[in-house]
Amino acid sequence: MSKLKRTHTCGQLRIKDVKSTVTLLGWVSSIRDHGGLIFIDLRDRYGITQVVFNPDKGNEFYTTAGQLRPEYVVAIQGAVSARPEGTLNPNLDTGEIEVYADTLEILNKSETPPFEIEDESKVSLELRLKHRYLDLRRPVMQRRLIFRHKVCQVIREYLDRLNFIDIETPVLTKSTPEGARDYLVPSRVNLGKFYALPQSPQLFKQILMVAGYDRYFQIVRCFRDEDLRAQRQPEFTQMDMEMSFVDENDIIQIIEGLVAAIFDKVIGKKVATPFPRLSYNEAMASYGCDAPDLRFGMKIKDISDIVQKSDFKVFLDTVKSGGQVRGVNANGCGNFSRKDIDDLTAFVGQFGAKGLAWFKVEEKGLSSSITKFFPEETREKIRQYMDAKKGDLLLFVADKPKVVSQSLAQLRLHLAQKNKLIDTNTFYFSWVVDFPLFDYNEDLQRYEALHHPFTSPHPDDLPILEEKPLEVKARAYDLVLNGVELGGGSIRIHAPEVQKRVFRLLGIEDESAYAKFGFLLDALKYGAPPHGGIALGVDRMVTLLLQLDDIREVIAFPKTQKATCLMTNAPSEVDLQQLKELGIRLL
Amino acid sequence: MSKLKRTHTCGQLRIKDVKSTVTLLGWVSSIRDHGGLIFIDLRDRYGITQVVFNPDKGNEFYTTAGQLRPEYVVAIQGAVSARPEGTLNPNLDTGEIEVYADTLEILNKSETPPFEIEDESKVSLELRLKHRYLDLRRPVMQRRLIFRHKVCQVIREYLDRLNFIDIETPVLTKSTPEGARDYLVPSRVNLGKFYALPQSPQLFKQILMVAGYDRYFQIVRCFRDEDLRAQRQPEFTQMDMEMSFVDENDIIQIIEGLVAAIFDKVIGKKVATPFPRLSYNEAMASYGCDAPDLRFGMKIKDISDIVQKSDFKVFLDTVKSGGQVRGVNANGCGNFSRKDIDDLTAFVGQFGAKGLAWFKVEEKGLSSSITKFFPEETREKIRQYMDAKKGDLLLFVADKPKVVSQSLAQLRLHLAQKNKLIDTNTFYFSWVVDFPLFDYNEDLQRYEALHHPFTSPHPDDLPILEEKPLEVKARAYDLVLNGVELGGGSIRIHAPEVQKRVFRLLGIEDESAYAKFGFLLDALKYGAPPHGGIALGVDRMVTLLLQLDDIREVIAFPKTQKATCLMTNAPSEVDLQQLKELGIRLL
Fold it and tell me: Are residues B252 and B308 in the same domain?
């Protein structure tokens, strides 16, 4: 047990504390000998304080101080002193003072760490993960995890103030219909049966609405047995909420208020609300995707009609067979070389586009290797419609709508990054609304729910539900930040007959629906209120707010499948006897 | 979509709102016809409001109101009116007003529920769990879950204010050394290997201390594959915290402050701090267990020495062979019949006691069938030592210390319940401290950690660690409320050499320790600060604070192994193809 009790943190002392006797505990961050004195930067989560050992005072401790090495854990006691003129450090909160130590206790030693504990780390992610306890000790990582804590705390306080109740839902549960692979847990009591780890608490929160809880929220772990990607983890955290007696606008307003509260209390900035809303159709038409990055323009435009007056067979055939010709104006890229354009063609090729038509905008009008196929009048129409001026480059893809959207969405982002069109200091939030309820899966030849099977159709579209399912709009909404979907939600179905009609369209016939979702259909029979909600990815939101690329920078113990950097959360071999008790064996 | 937007909740309107036009949405709780008017009790989470339909106003809605049934979900609009004299309901917060509805919309119908939605439910737990969405709609269940939410919210706010950081630890992890059975999750990416669901975040929070986070907390789900009991669930929630640079008193004070904050802000009562502390030895001696119920006295006393002056062979032989004679004074039970005492003998028999010796205290002294074996002087000594007066009953067990403790601990509780000695309005908190570090497992012939292998020995006992392990005290502490352990914690080992010595004593040799806890031993090498923490059972705490017997009353979706009341959280059959992908098959 240390004899010295901490009186202050290493980030706390100021000029007003001069002459106080203080005790600090922390890690030795650096050691310098200067003019016969030993200077130690002592670090803890709260900051750094300069500690001085003077050979005149207490020789015993001066000698010990000489033996200190980086990352030793020490307790020091001494008097706070103003730093001599010329030695103040304006980069440190404690930069006006230093502590003259007259007592030193080594609480623990440290081997030489495999990398330095400093913000700028040049070592590999693998090494950082292997020694995560040292990686997390870097002040920049501490700031990130503290930021994440604050975001969660603001979410909780905001929702608590609005009468939301935090209710825990089970982790050992039945399969949920979210489409991804479930993690399974064999049951020892019911041999041959398995729990599933939840992909979301969707059904539980709907049950809570039926049970009259009115406003529910949870910051909750969810699980998907998917392959790892930089923005994805097999276990992730979402802010999940659900409300009764509301419509889309109520949910959207509450979330906008929540985002504003996070900006206000954690980031110290204002955010403008309400966020712009785009319909799904607008988003797909102008940006080629349903999570558009609106920090820059370069909208996609459709010239399928205009090019009817041309002899360019590729365009004409594409449109004739139900395809489209759409493109973007790459402002100021008229000086791109043939090689540059070939690279762009290869780029869109990754997303299925078979070619990339281009026009450079010159004094005299559009110029290209295909100019000859387009009458003067058509070229001028294209120029005007694309808002093109001298020095611009127009790029077009002609293909099936899906391919055109995908390749142009990516091309737009690619050009914006290349030309530095994105103001990385901006947070641009938007809502995408009016999604279709169903998608048609060509391979399986059946309808699929675009969100999930509990999303309410728009009431105006109920009459055409069976007749024209693909025209039915969903009461769904996604929140998008800087081109990334933060999450989404919907008003749910509360009428049991409507739920049955939707199940039927999805090919979940009544009997099998009952086996799978019977408790929900039962619940809807006993007075389910109109309700809706949303789920936002907490890890993803924090990563974006901190303007980081990798979600692992905001999670203390990230998953990784590489055995070399597994920390403690790797799968491991288990006792065969234990497997036998669970009624399973290895293949 | 409902045309009517809620303006007030059903618990909100007061006499000052009279003449306002309001819109309420909720469930029909009851319907009464009276004097040509229809009275509806409209219920939501916030309360009940009486709604009146008058045939004079808007006949259409009066007719619709006549078709309402219990648990229909409706929206009504109307004017707030003061109730006529004599019809005020002092039991309702809204009991001074009623709303004369001029609009009614049925938002959803309800079949007749299988039980009534009221506080006092006489139906079986099975039926309640089967229709949990209706069970949770009962106002008493809503109050309990809201109470639970508030407790968690107070915990978070209190710890946030004290600079604790909420950091999430993984759910898919390696086996933790907590002693219970792990739930396993087969890994698809590493076939033949398994994740374990964590029994606690113990090792992760220690890593966080090594990483310099100083103060960590989490309200976290933990998992133990154990059989269900009323106070236990296979997945449970604990308030987990850890601090650096502290000793036992720091942790104890913070938790006492936390309990006081919960009482202040959620229960509206004061709780006296500091809580009394008992050593483990005192607790075992006076109460026979390490989680004593201190709401009543009836301390256990040891008469092993006194009875040396007797001819009672059972007592003499027991003491000679290393056993004890201990007992309690059942105040005022001197009138117990032979049958009563036989019942008590059978009761202690369940806990291994082979008999129960008794003395009734009469005017002339102790009286019993075994009086003759005890000289007058010895009997008087027993009477005095047991603080016995006329009308009392003294009960003794002679056996091995463990059996004596167990059976007397239970006997003490049994007598207290029988004689109503327990003031059930009292919350009696205490700390049990100075636990032994090790226990000796007679069956396996080896030492076991009484808490866990990371608990720090008392530094004074380090010299005798290997020599007299059973005499080494642990720096551990348990929080006890009304005879139930709410949780416990300890100061941990931060010196790698001490950790290795403890592992060695536990038979975890260096190499295997490294395979199992290598990352912890590694972490301790790089400047681990002195640290300690605690974990408290949230479900258990809430259950006790609400004075309920069953933990399932404070959890929305409890686990149960009975197929008939499984809600959604039952294990189920899965696709054999999916098992194949996981590299496992059923036995």
Answer: no
Beta-sheet pairing, A584-586 with B47-53: unpaired
Same domain, B135 and B68: no
Does ipTM surpass 0.85 in this model?
A: yes
In this prediction the pTM is 0.95
Query: Which residue numbers in chain A have pLDDT < 70?
Result: 1, 57-58, 176-178, 228-231, 510, 512-515, 560-570
CATH number for position B326: 3.30.1360.30
Q: How many domains does chain B have?
A: 3
Residue B309: Cβ within 10 Å count: 11
A132 and A219 in a single domain? The answer is: yes
Rounded to an integer, what is the distance from CA B327 to the centroid of its chain? 29
From chain A, pick out residues whose CB is under 8 angstroms from the CB of B245.
2, 6, 25, 75
What is the model's pLDDT at position B563?
Answer: 45
**B321 in the same domain as B351:** yes
Residue numbers in A near B208 (CB within 8 A): 136, 556
Across the interface, do A171 and B223 touch by the CB < 8 Å criterion?
yes
Give pLDDT, residue A231: 65
Q: Are residues B99 and B148 in the same domain?
A: no
Look at residue A433 and tell me if it is in a domain. no
Q: Where are the beta strands (DSSP E) in A71-191?
A: 73-82, 97-108, 165-166, 184-186
Instruction: Out of A418, A446, A461, pick the residue that ends a domain.
Output: A418
Evaluate whether B555 touches B132 at the Cβ level (below 8 Å).
no
Distance from CA of A290 to the nearest CA of B (A): 26
- For the cut 90, the answer to whether the pLDDT of residue B44 exceeds it is yes
Q: Is B59 among the domain residues?
A: yes
Say whether the peptide bond before residue B558 is cis (omega within 30 degrees of 0): no
Instruction: Choose the mutation target among B68, B133, B146 for the interface with A, i.e. most A CBs under 10 Å.
Output: B133
In a domain, residue B23? The reply is: yes
- Quick one: which of A276, A315, A329 has its CA closest to A479? A276
CB pair distance less than 8 Å for A527 and B574? no
Contact B488, B518 (CB under 8 A): no
* Residue B329 lies in domain: 296-418
| Claim to verify: residue B136 and residue B241 sit in the same structural domain | yes
Across B562-567, average pLDDT: 48
pLDDT tens-digit map of B494-528: 999 999 999 999 888 767 666 677 788 889 999 99
Q: Are residues B370 and B414 in the same domain?
A: yes
What value does the mean pLDDT of chain B take?
Answer: 93
By Cβ distance, the residue of A156, A175, A185 closest to B156 is A156
**What CA–CA distance (Å, rounded) separates A390 from A368?**
14
3-state secondary structure A302-331: ECCCHHHCCCCHHHHHHHHCCCEEEEEEEC
A483 assigned to some structural domain: no
Is residue B567 predicted with pLDDT exceeding 60?
A: no
